[in-house]
Amino acid sequence: MPSRRDHLVVVVPGIGGSVLARPDRPEDVVWDAGIGDIVDLVKHPDRMSTDEWPCLKPIRLTESTKLLGFTVVPGYERLLEQLKAFGTIDRLGDPERPQRDADVVVAPYDFRGGIEEAAKRLDAVVRARLGDIAEEDRVARVIVVAHSLGGLVARYWMGLMDQWKWCRALITLGTPHRGASKALDWLVNGVRLRGVRLSGPSRLVEEWPVVADLLSRYKAIRNLAAPADAPGAAWYPHELPVDRLTVPAKRAYDLHLQIERAWGEMPSYGPEVVAYVGWGHPTLDACFWDGASLRATKEPPDWLDLTEGWRKDFGDGTVAAYSALPPELDSPIRLTDRHVPMACSERVLARIMKYEYWGRPEGALGGADSERGPAIGLDLDELHALGEPIPVTATIREVDADLAGQAVWARLRPQVDNDDAWAAGWVNVRLDWDSDHGCFHGLLPAQPEGLYHLKVQARDVPHGGDLDVVDTLAVIDVE
User: Which domains does the chain show, CATH number per domain?
Assistant: First the structure.
């Protein structure tokens, strides 16, 4: 039997995943809106403005799904519940009061300020926890589990802050390693609902440096004014002729290149990177500039040299699949989850268990983990207007069968804190088969303002068995 190695598991959340409080009064929470207060940042964005509060104190991770004004963000309670298997959890991650015996430490941060500032906070959290451990005993001790933006924070910390020596592995869940076109759409067009620009959330995405940090680091924009084969036919975000975007977009692009170079300089025995990627869900990706406006679509940029496999992968509904893979890797671990539920994937626990013994896990990035199996791909917007039906499109992927008679149901219920209530209060709609596009469509009835869990199910699919996918959506009043 191989010898066991005690690791420190560090959890780094994504944007909106940290509870933030006033620095002078930690009991005065500024961001951790409850279920009944999900639209607060839509109507009252000033309380999260960096002009109003340049610095906020991170005090823990969010533990229920919420609407961060412009995007739905996860709670991390299920992930932390799983990680109890490793021992004591420090749920505060306060570098001034470290829990020395903790086996799992959370690393909340003020997500508005950008990757660099968040990495400094991560460094303080880990240093405080390892403070009484000799330097030689810190080597390869840390396993970082990072969701979404948290993966970029961890890569900056390991690479540009040279803390890779402390780390055994980095596990990323839906991290936009190569950026996300969704951020570009927000910054250029604003946050929109029903064609209406939401002024409050749009001001926040323009104001927060972190949104620019999420911009694509590849040529995601097709310049329609140039021939397809011309040198200027495709642009990076900082090349788009939008004056207010140029400086922050170039800063973010340079930051991504610095992270990439730092990781390229690491020795081969450095931390293993495991990238979990959502693959089956249409995701904003290719953008088109007509000289006056930007249009974002859910198709891969056909001007990039993508393999047929990547064109089949789509994404997790927020991050395109190939964007969720770090530049130095060539193979992901595919998940059927959407972006928010991915934060609590049960696959992570099994993965970390393998690191509890010396040696790299077998089949780290290959084998069945990299294959696509039967799954439901979900096309669903995060935000929906009060009083309007909710459109849902589902595609059964990787199944070679006639699906015309297949029953596919969309089930919706208000978000609740009690897991036992999953079966209560559902609105059920059977989706209609669309033979022209090979998918299923339906309209869920209009709902009151609030957060809702959606589950799409297909039972006894030929060559696929029982399939389902879940996500969270928000219904808000834009009046």
Answer: 1-215+241-286+294-372 (3.40.50), 375-476 (2.60.40.1930)
Q: Burial of 324 by CB count in 10 Å (0-12 exposed, 13-18 middle, 19+ buried)?
A: buried
> Rounded to the nearest 5°, which phi and psi values hold at 319?
-115, 125
Which residues share a beta bridge with 192?
Answer: 197
User: What is the 3-state composition of the chain as percent helix, strand, coil, each rounded to the nearest 5?
Assistant: 30, 30, 45
Terminal CA-CA length for the chain: 64
Which tokens hold the place of 267?
Answer: 């020795």
What does the longest C-alpha to C-alpha distance in the chain come to? Answer: 65
Contacts of 318 by beta carbon, 8 Å cutoff, 6+ apart:
71, 148, 174, 180, 182, 283, 338, 339, 340
- Taking the C-alpha atoms of residue 275 and residue 151, their distance in angstroms, rounded to an integer, is 9
Query: What pLDDT is recorded for position 372?
Result: 87
For 407, half-sphere exposure in the C-beta direction (CA atoms, 13 angstrom radius) is 8
Closest CA to 318 of 16, 10, 11: 16
pLDDT in tens, 88-140: 999 999 999 999 999 999 999 999 999 999 999 999 999 999 988 888 889 99
Q: What is the pTM of this model?
A: 0.94
H/E segment holding residue 468? strand 465-476
Q: 3-state SS of 333-369? A: EEECCCCCHHHHCCHHHHHHHHCCECCCCCCCCCHHH
Residue 298: φ, ψ to 5°:
-100, 35
pLDDT at position 231 over 90: no
DSSP β-bridge partners for residue 384: 475
- Residue located via tokens 């306060």: 94
Block residue for tokens 């959330």: 201
Is 262:159 a contact under the CB 8 Å cutoff?
yes
Indicate the DSSP class of residue 79. Answer: H
User: What digits encode the pLDDT tens for the residues 253-290?
Assistant: 999 999 999 999 999 999 999 999 999 999 999 999 99
Cβ neighbour number for residue 307 with a 10 Å cutoff: 9
Asked if residue 41 has pLDDT above 80, the reply is no
